[in-house]
Amino acid sequence: MNIAENIRKYRKMYHMEQQDLAYQLHISDKTVSSWECGRTEPRMGMIEAMCEIFRCDKSELIDGKTTQSKPMNLSNVERDIILSYRNAEPGI
To answer: Each residue of 31-60: pLDDT tens digit?
Structure first.
């Protein structure tokens, strides 16, 4: 798998829309779409940020070399709680 496919795979594994990932990375959803379509590739800083969000290694995101699978079987309510927590302003 290439990085475009891996970004999509991890985003879906975490039950995220492109706009959810874009919001967390402070970029547009069109940029995420461009990465997933393979038109452009993210810079290393964005790769590192996605690895923090997806809790994976850079090699897993870049070329699909996984050390272990980390599926997240979350309900919509659980997903919404996690996204709300991740997007909350510090100190609120």
So the answer is: 999 999 999 999 999 999 999 999 999 999
H-run or E-run covering 19: helix 18-25
**pTM for the full predicted model:** 0.71
Is the CB of residue 57 less than 8 Å from the CB of residue 63? no
What DSSP character marks residue 90? T
How far is it, in rounded angstroms, from Cα 40 to Cα 50? 16
Q: Quick one: how far is CA 30 from the chain centroid?
A: 14
Would you tell me how many other CB atoms lie within 10 Å of the CB of residue 61?
22
Other C-beta atoms closer than 10 Å to the C-beta of 10 total: 21
Q: How many CA atoms within 13 Å lie on the side-chain side of 42?
A: 30
